[in-house]
Amino acid sequence: MNSATQKKFADYIRDEVVTIGDPFLSEATRQVTNLEEVAPLCDLMVKKLREELKGAGLAANQIGVPARILVAELRKNELFPTRPESPLYIMINPEILSYSDEMIDDWEGCFSIPNMVALIPRHKSIVVKYITLDGVEHKETFSEHIARTIQHEVDHLDGILYFERIKDLSKIVTRDNFMKYVLKKDL
Fold first, then answer.
1. Which of 2, 27, 62, 88 could form a disulfide with 73 if both were Cys (CB 3.0 to 4.6 A apart)?
2. Where are the beta strands (DSSP E) in the chain?
3. Is the pTM higher than 0.90?
4. Is 20 inside a domain boundary?
């Protein structure tokens, strides 16, 4: 395929979130080389995360785009009402450079595995190298909940779903049962 007919990342966008069972989620994403090309995609991902999904993170391949991009922003919501909040991060070509030895088990959900929650071990802190839309390279340490979210989204970019990280299969629950038995909220 020559450059004139090569598909742009925006040509891949799907309206619905790609869900478990779709082989696309098992494929690793591609490095981004043209920041101008992906700026509208990043805007779309932020809008989808904040307004439609109302979650903590989204990887480009979850909306059908094979680009190495994630957006993450922790906010309290019905499923995670005590989660600390974070600023918005738009990470292009994120790479986890190092992981803490300390692991933390905590609950995670995923738009690609709807209505399920599971207890997942993740590293307490990580060092991540990434580029922002303005072309600036960052190397930053993240800890606790935001580190968990970034690890989850980087896994997506590498073709890994959080179910593959489960250590105890008895710790998989439906969203409703998580609310009822873990959070102890009436539905």
1. 88
2. 57-59, 69-72, 89-99, 103-110, 113-123, 125-131, 137-143, 172-174
3. yes
4. yes
